Amino acid sequence: MNTPEKDYSHRGWIAALALIAVLGAVSFIPPQSLGGVKLRRANILSDILSFEDAAAEAAEPALFDEDDFHVDMAQVARRIEAERIEADTAPRPVQTTFEWLLRQDSSGRRAVVPDTVRLNPALVAIEQFAPADSGRLRAFYDTLLYARRPVRIAVLGDSFIEGDILTADLRERLQSAYSGGGAGFAPMASPLTAFRRTVKTQSKGWTTYNIMQRKAAPARLRENFYVSGWVSQPAAGASTRWESTDYRKRLDSCTTARVFFLSPRDSRVEVTLNDAQRREFDIAGDDAVRQIAVSAPRVRSLAFKVLSGAEDFVGYGAVFEDRGVVVDNYSVRSNNGQAMFWTNPSVNAQINAMLGYDLVVLQYGLNIMQPGVKNYTNYAGQIEKMIAYVRQCFPGAAVLVLGVSDRSVKTDAGFEPMDAIPHMLDCQRRAARNTGAAFWPTCDAMRALGGMEQFVKNGWAGKDYTHINYAGGRRVAWALFDAINAGVSEVYTEQRIASLRRTAAQAVEVFFRARARRARKNRAQSVLHSCPCSAATVSA
């Protein structure tokens, strides 16, 4: 006897409905984070259900802490002005600059003629937006061409330039073209000095603090950060030795070394030049920034030692230079620019008064940019604050904003350029335009060379598709040098044309004056010969 088959279809429907219910419930779970990565809401009902967090994605996400960028520019100006007034009207009873002169050279730099040869076939030019910027940048170009003093450039950035990547080659090219030597700034002590190839640093007895971990530093140190991002506190007998390398040309062409520090209490320090000549300096206690400037026919190495007065002593570092271009690398890992506002504006201004920067380059954005994020309006406002802060601390300097570098992310189709790049570039360009700063699109320069994927294939960048290495830094530096050199060449050409026009105008003026004199002389002679009395006089 045949038994009728049972109908199980209703069970399938029940299972399907249960699955839909579970998935629907999952859709209501708020977005979660795993390992610092924000996961999207699982919503299979997205066509019929919407959530507030989804709508909020159109607005700029919280990419940074707004409080980190809080700075009272009026207060900054007052601190700097108070320091200036005190220095001008009431000279300090203590010495702020100590000189050790083993060579005095008053010849200075010579005027140069820029070379128009490019290192890269495609020129990515520096963009200028306002007359104020044009004036500042033109003054920098004029300084490169004609100034008989050192030309100083500070590059403030993040891990993209850490270890002197990019700046090493920019320094080499500028010094080769416009004279100069030395490795620029090197910190007193830092765990990152081992990664830098342009200067060898050996330090002992220092406790060093990075500005990104400033809260771990003692209060006095926390209040006295310089834009370098490092402060060092010595134990008794702490010392540092810097030595030039041959990693790039002209690094060993150093004739002056400047050591910067704070000595609130009386102290005694020792400086050793080239491991041979030593000199001790007695430093009277004061809150002012001090420098010891050593000039010699050649500075191959310099050692600095704190003999006494280590309490409250703060070491910043040393600048190694020659006549001509000096490029200082002030990189801080993980910095998006906010660390600038944690520095002491008075310390910045005092060191600038001793050095006098002509150009400040801002290289940030890599630590802000995120895939899928298109709105960087708030960050653009923070860049404007950075530019204003730089101008307060370094009033004689032009400001150049470097657009974010190229970066690739892994997708199902392989590595592709991050979709956030054009939006970050627009944000940075807008900030430069609004403040009258100059702008250079680093990403465009990299893509003219094939982009990040090609950089990785060539061995010019790491496998993170984010950070370039020394080889990649050289290519980007050459592109930036071409842009600077093109600007200098344009100014030089304009000035030569203006000079030729003045010479031609003067020659024309001389010609017409001479012709006028001849005409007057001829008229006088004609009158003389036509006068009857003249003929009678002659016959008599």
Give me the secondary-structure topology:
Blueprint: H1 9-27, E1 33-34, E2 37-38, H2 52-56, H3 73-89, E3 97-101, H4 131-146, E4 151-157, H5 167-178, E5 184-187, E6 199-210, H6 219-222, E7 230-244, E8 256-263, E9 267-273, E10 277-283, E11 286-295, E12 301-308, E13 314-321, E14 325-331, H7 345-355, E15 359-363, H8 377-393, E16 398-402, E17 408-411, E18 414-417, H9 421-435, E19 438-440, H10 442-448, H11 451-458, H12 470-530, H13 532-539
Parallel strand pairs: 3-11, 4-14, 4-15, 15-16, 16-19
Antiparallel strand pairs: 1-2, 5-13, 6-7, 7-12, 8-11, 8-13, 9-10, 9-12, 17-18
Polypeptide structure, described:
Helices cover 37% and strands 23% of the residues. The chain contains 13 helices and 19 strands. The model is unreliable at 33-42 and 44-58 (pLDDT under 50). The protein has one domain (66-498): Rossmann fold (3-Layer(aba) Sandwich), CATH 3.40.50. The protein has helices spanning 9-27, 52-56, 73-89, 131-146, 167-178, 219-222, 345-355, 377-393, 421-435, 442-448, 451-458, 470-530, 532-539, and strands spanning 33-34, 37-38, 97-101, 151-157, 184-187, 199-210, 230-244, 256-263, 267-273, 277-283, 286-295, 301-308, 314-321, 325-331, 359-363, 398-402, 408-411, 414-417, 438-440. Helix 3 (73-89) packs across helix 7 (345-355), helix 5 (167-178) runs parallel beside helix 12 (470-530) and helix 8 (377-393) packs across helix 9. With 540 residues, the protein is α/β, with parallel strands linked by helices.
